[in-house]
């Protein structure tokens, strides 16, 4: 008898005759949280993650994007295909479209990426990308050190189950809760290890 078989035999002997126990599985589902005040809650939770957050009307989105890129001193920003036009015109900033020539090494040399998102979660301050229009492939938002993400107010849902209900499970999903950070080494917070060091979120109402 192998070690595995011996262990399983002992487990079977230990539970022999034990009554069946019903395990409650009252998991939270879509629609279980109130859907009011989502923009304010999302902005607060994103800010808790040390992300930079702006809430602006749609008419001010292009101006806010320009101001953010100018304040950062960006010179080359990647914009995935499908990003809503018109793109903001930022003096001195080259808005680059994604292409086969932009490998990891090239992406490491740009100043950041400007994307949309698929959905955002108010309760957790999480942004979800699924490689849809304006979001690009996963490397675009993991390699550059700066990510400016535009979130429409109608993309913000109350909780994670609500977000899952909107997503297509077989798409490449990236869940972002603030800038990349880890405290694995001596509990010291290090940012920019697994993704962008700086996340800036523009919520368009």
Automatic annotation (TrEMBL):
<dbReference type="InterPro" id="IPR037171">
    <property type="entry name" value="NagB/RpiA_transferase-like"/>
</dbReference>
<dbReference type="InterPro" id="IPR003741">
    <property type="entry name" value="LUD_dom"/>
</dbReference>
<dbReference type="InterPro" id="IPR024185">
    <property type="entry name" value="FTHF_cligase-like_sf"/>
</dbReference>
<dbReference type="Pfam" id="PF02589">
    <property type="entry name" value="LUD_dom"/>
</dbReference>
<feature type="domain" description="LUD">
    <location>
        <begin position="106"/>
        <end position="204"/>
    </location>
</feature>
<protein>
    <submittedName>
        <fullName>LUD domain-containing protein</fullName>
    </submittedName>
</protein>
């Amino acid at each position: 008898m192998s070690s595995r078989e011996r262990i399983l035999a002992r487990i079977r002997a230990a539970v022999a005759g034990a009554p069946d126990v019903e395990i409650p599985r009252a998991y939270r589902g879509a629609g279980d949280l109130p859907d009011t005040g989502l923009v304010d809650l999302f902005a607060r939770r994103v800010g808790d993650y040390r992300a930079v957050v702006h809430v602006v009307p749609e008419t001010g989105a292009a101006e806010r994007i320009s101001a953010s890129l100018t304040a950062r001193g960006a010179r080359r920003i990647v914009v995935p295909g499908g990003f809503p036009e018109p793109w903001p015109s930022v003096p001195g900033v080259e808005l680059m479209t994604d292409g086969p020539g932009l490998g990891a090494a090239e992406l490491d040399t740009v100043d950041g990426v400007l994307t949309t998102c698929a959905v955002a979660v108010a309760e957790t301050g999480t942004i979800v990308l699924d490689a849809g229009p304006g979001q690009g492939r996963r490397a675009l938002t993991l390699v550059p050190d700066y990510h400016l993400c535009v979130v429409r107010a109608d993309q913000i849902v109350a909780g994670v189950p609500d977000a899952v209900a909107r997503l297509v499970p077989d798409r490449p999903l990236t869940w972002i809760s603030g800038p990349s950070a880890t405290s694995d080494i001596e509990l010291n917070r290090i940012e920019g290890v697994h993704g962008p060091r700086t996340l800036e979120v523009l919520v368009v109402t």
